[in-house]
User: Fold this.
Amino acid sequence: MPVVARAGKFVFAQSIGDVAAFLGLDVDATPQLSPDDLIGRLDAVLTAAVRHCRQMPDAELATELPNRPRSYRVLMHHIFRIPEAFLDAMQGETLSHEMLVAPPPPDMATTEDIAAYGEAVRRRALAWWQAHEDKTCTAPVSTYYGTPPLHEVLERTVWHAAQHVRQLTSLLEGLDIQPDRPLTAKDLAGLPLPEKVWDD
Assistant:
């Protein structure tokens, strides 16, 4: 878990705003995109993830990522588990780290199984947003790193999933499989994505 320490004190580095305040920096850490724009980005990210999952050969599902004990199967499930955990938190649960890293169930054994799961999560996210009354998303959300506003948690959910979709396209390219319509700069515009794609 990322932590920033200074002069015997520390802060969980899950929120840029928390880190900026801890370091005494005058930084506007509010999300660049509106909640509605973020939902549009999430739809694009999950749609691409479903496509790319269907391109991954079942024979590669047990292969592990470089320098990390995480299989391709677990990574692909994780992409969709991120927004699913967010949606569970919208029903009153505390968003925990354990929710985010929950492994795929044993019966989710093929790439098509994972893609179907991902499509169901995508549809659930769109249905949640359509029914959600407060489109400003200012209400606090209970998470394992504090109670940030919903807008911030939504942004984090989108960029976290997008980061791992970038990983997935890289894995496909490593197998000499051209990713089908990979995410574009327009799809990801406004998201605070890191340059590296191999960190969680």
